[in-house]
Amino acid sequence: MRKIIFPVLISFLLPITLFAGGGMWLPFLLGQLNEADMQSLGMKMTAEDIYSVNKGSLKDAIVHFNGGCSSSIISPQGLLLTNHHCGYSAIQTHSTLEKNYLENGFWAEKQSDELPNDNLVATFIDRIEDVTKDILVGVTDKMTTKERNDKISQNIKAFKKAYAKKKYEDVLIKPFFKGNQYILFVTITYTDVRLVGAPPSAIGKFGADTDNWEWPRHSGDFSLFRIYANKDNLPADYSPDNQPLKPKHYLPISLDGVDAGDFTLVYGFPGRTDEYLPSYAVAQIQNAIDPARIEIRDHALKILDKAMRNDPTIRLQYASKYARIANYWKKWIGERTGLIKTKAVEKKQKLEQEFTRRLAENPELNKKYGSLLDDMDYKYQEIELLAIYRNYFHELFFRNIEIFKPANSLRRFLAQANEENYDQLAGSTKKSLQAFFKDYQPAVDRDVFKSLMQLYTDNVCTAYFPNYLLEERFLEGYDMEQLAKEFYDNSIMTQPEKLYQLIDDKKTDEIKKDPVYQLFMDIVDAYRTRLNPEYQAIKAPIDSMQRRYMAALMEVLPEKKYYPDANGTMRVSYGQVEGYLPKDGVEYLPKTYMEGIIEKYVPGDYEFDLPQRLLDLYEAKDYGPYAENGRLPINFLGSNHTTGGNSGSPVIDAYGNLIGLNFDRVWEGTMSDLNYDRRICRNIMVDIRYVMWVMDKYAGAQRLVDEVQLVHPKAGQKSSKPWDGQKKRKRRKRW
Ligand code: ARG
Ligand code: ASP
């Protein structure tokens, strides 16, 4: 049996002499795979400066923010920088119409004013190891998918159990290269993370959904938190006795700015990419999956938008929800457009032709992989409708129609509750219900229900309908008005007080009789007993074929470059400050300035209004040390390969200093998740000088400005091995 040892194989393929772009690399393999390439782009650090298990390195300042975003530590007192949109729901939770931090911003005057948050965690990575050999021990090519998966789960379980770790550490093992490689991450998660500062949305979210995913951009998309630890500097739940974390490393902030061509490194936690799909799978996303998802959200967004425009309370309640739905709606539209424009499907077909041609030349490989592409094609065709229905299921019942959210909390509660734990579970369930009802408008949701259930009954095959909808009277024709009436007028899910009372009185039978609760149980049942088993029965062989295809590509086309798909683990992307050509005759420059904010300003508009204070400072050109030739830089573009989850990632210069904050990508390039294209895929970053200007000049948050370390690497103060800052810890001069 031939075993492929991936790290070794990969190192054959590289180094690349010319920067080809693309790639989200594992920090602990940079020395082997990327260092030379990075240095040829101007990087002055070594791989060891970026990731080391033996000494402090940049890695120690990089934080996974609540599992979904990235962030970094920027002061010796655990000050954490992430995006405004990553801190958004924390900021919103603390906001009321009277104390509206979303609208007006929030700045804790002193440490004791910093606001604790339920359910907000910050995770560091202590070390990373390749554990492929241990996890694949006893796994053979002869095994069925199920046997293989079972064996791997067993191995992972045993490995974790035997692994020596500290009490406060966690161990995470994730598949890479579609399950050909397994990597272990030892993590440390802090649970006392407090809100320190946030600009008003007019700065943090300037341009809102109109500008989202687009360039030119002018957003101050940042917010500040602080990690607190117990007296031993270890993770602890909130307590007034906790102290600010003393980090192993924090990023110095460069005030020298960026120019086209400068080296950039983005360090964070990209969520998910799929770069190695066959052509027909990409075509399926482009022509079937994306259009279905776009259509569903189109309907929901139109209803929310109208309600929000008419009522300021609803606008506040639905701001975060709307942004979340609109975000991927617009992304999918961009993705589809980009796939078509860059001829992604044709590009993949050409690769497959070359793959097939090479197989034809090599009988041994042909025997191994000859039928793979056809087999996968068949399975992808088979799964298409089920995949669409599955999207309907998730989009409707778990995202866009809200009334099913309390139903789902109650379902979980009732499934777990017994005599002993009832009160405790009731408490936490009520807490999450209260959070839900705080921002819930049944009338708006009812319209969403009517609109989306119509789409559902029109487009999903009845074989997967919840039983309730299969009743005779419905099959004659669905009257959505009637259906909505039946549920929304009669359910306790729209009457929180009554619901809490039932929970307190332990009248669980009455909850179970609720029409929405029952419908939801039917929905879950249809999914569990019909839709999902059928889907998984095809998905499992697809996954296994994708794993073999990944290995096949690397074996058959070894001259190509391969990097692992994003999977929520720590990665490094690198590139340069760089504009692009979005269409014929148009060139996008890589930097924007304050003048652009003023150009976009529309007084009173909910997306493009500006605070008076910003206008005044602009008039006075009061930019302090943050200006560049008299202009205040706002955002810049780079050729770093990023995806969802990379938001809040620090952008680091050639020496290890912070120069920016990643928050978005350009619309033409959002197909980078499936087909990275060096020509038009760009990430968008906030210039750190704008962040500092807002903190310092706009908000007057002097205590925070005093906390960070400002440096001038370009002016010869080539700081640094990054951690020198801490060792010296001299009181720095401020320019
Ligand atoms: N598109 C960016 C990302 O995927 C930013 C989203 C937040 N901003 C917004 N206007 N919705 O997260
Ligand atoms: N805005 C995304 C995020 O929140 C980043 C991206 O998709 O480029 O992670």
What's the β-strand tally?
21
What distance separates the N and C termini? 64 Å
Helix content: 40-55%
- Our count of helices gives 28
Based on secondary structure, the structural category is alpha+beta
Most strands sheet: 10 strands, antiparallel
Small molecules bound in the structure, each named once: arginine, aspartic acid
Tell me the fraction of residues in β-strands, as a range. 5-15%
Rg, rounded, reads 26 Å
Which regions have little confidence, pLDDT < 50, spanning 5+ residues?
A: 1-17, 719-735
**Shape, per Cα inertia axes:** globular
Mean pLDDT: 93
Describe the structure.
This protein has a domain at 279-554. The radius of gyration is 26 Å and the shape is globular. The longest helix is centred in the C-terminal third of the chain and has 42 residues, at 515-556. It has 735 residues and is an alpha+beta fold. Strand 1 (62-65) and strand 2 (69-73) form a beta hairpin. The protein has 28 helices and 21 strands. The strands form four sheets. Strands 1, 2, 3, 4, 5, 6, 7, 8, 9 and 10 form a ten-stranded antiparallel sheet that branches. Helix 11 runs antiparallel to helix 12 (312-341) and helix 18 (442-459) packs across helix 20. Mean pLDDT is 93; it is low at 1-17 and 719-735. Arginine (ARG) is lined by residues 85, 205, 208-209, 212-213, 323, 327, 644, 647, 663-664. Aspartic acid is lined by residues 642-647, 663-665.
Features of this protein?
28 helices, disordered C terminus, seven-stranded antiparallel β-sheet, 735 residues, alpha+beta, binds arginine, 21 strands, binds aspartic acid
